[in-house]
Write a structure and sequence with these properties.
The protein is 50% helix and 0% strand. The chain is mainly alpha-helical. The chain has a domain of 36 residues.
């Protein structure tokens, strides 16, 4: 790395997009990943859909308890 960088010609906000969406990665441990993969294979679905369905189900249970 340089000791000093010249930002005098830089443009603030050049790449800023107010409506940008980010997909944050979620890392599952081996046991949970294996479980979700088995469900996805049986349902002929993708991992994201299965994980989202499981979370929705858990949310409904948690909201019913509150």
């Amino acid at each position: 790395m340089k000791k000093e960088y010249d930002f005098s010609k830089g443009q603030r906000g050049k790449f800023y997009r107010a409506n940008a969406k980010f997909n944050l990665p979620v890392y599952l441990d081996r046991e949970n990943l294996s479980f979700v993969q088995r469900i996805a294979e049986r349902k002929d679905s993708d991992l994201s859909s299965v994980v989202n369905d499981l979370i929705k189900s858990d949310r409904r249970l948690a909201e019913a308890i509150e």
